[in-house]
Amino acid sequence: MLRAPTRHSLRILTVNTHKGFAQFNRRFMLHELREAVRDVAADIVFLQEVQGTHNGHSAKVADWPEAPHYEFLADQIWPQFAYGQNAAYPHGHHGNAILSKHPIVQQSNHDVSIAGKESRGLLHCQIDVPQAGGPLHAICVHLGLRRWQRERQLRLLCQVIDEQVPAGAALIAAGDFNDWNNHAHRVLNDCAGLHEVFEHAHGRAAKTFPARFPLFPLDRIYVRNFSAYAPLALPSSPWSSLSDHAPLAAEVRL
């Protein structure tokens, strides 16, 4: 287990939950995922592809929880949570979620879907963190698979930050950017002054997909207005079997 964060720092975790299933949908892993998320002891958790409801799975899959997956994962550890629906279909819906140990004082969900069948969104929460000197802004991100979609979605993310996040506020934008060509680094630094935690520490984004043998750097943690930030190493086991994406974790100092 990782050591506990200090009083003036926050631990961040982001993971694409793949709707609670392992890669290729072979096994339902939500219960194991909950234990792994707990072990990280994060203050704020960013979730993508988290299931809200699914009437078909709930009737057929053993141990399917009665609560939405984000509530099941939050359980008694994260008393605050927010959900932003991205995709709706006859059996249910899924989207982004943020779990927090600190009060979520405001939330808004932005639909950034660009044509086709890929439903994508930005879940923006303001979180009351005492040490931050004002609301901390957290944006859970899930972008499209095609570059032209991501380019437009990145501009929409920049617009949300410009219009809704004060210049001096602490800001974290984390999630599944699907950005294997590292285009987002320059765009988000130019438009919003964001820095990616792993790129800052290692000179490159972390490879997170596929989870068992990561080849592509799809997931990110971008930050602004923190005095320090550093990535945290997470073990391959059990994470490589819990989803199709590996998670990312970081510690940020206010």
Query: What is the residue-averaged pLDDT?
Result: 94
* Strand content range: 25-35%
Sheet with the most strands?
6 strands, mixed
Which stretches of 5+ consecutive residues score pLDDT under 50? Answer: none
How much is the radius of gyration in Å? 17 Å
| N→C terminal distance | 23 Å
- The helix content is 10-25%
Give the SSE order as H and E letters: EHEHHEEEEEHEHEHEEHE
CATH fold field value? Deoxyribonuclease I, Chain A
Look at the structure and name the CATH superfamily: Endonuclease/exonuclease/phosphatase
Q: Describe the global form.
A: globular
Q: Name the CATH architecture.
A: 4-Layer Sandwich
- Structural class call reads alpha+beta
Trace the largest sheet across and list its strands: 3-4-2-1-12-11
- How many DSSP helices? 7
CATH class equals: Alpha Beta
Total discrete domains: 1
- Strand element count: 12
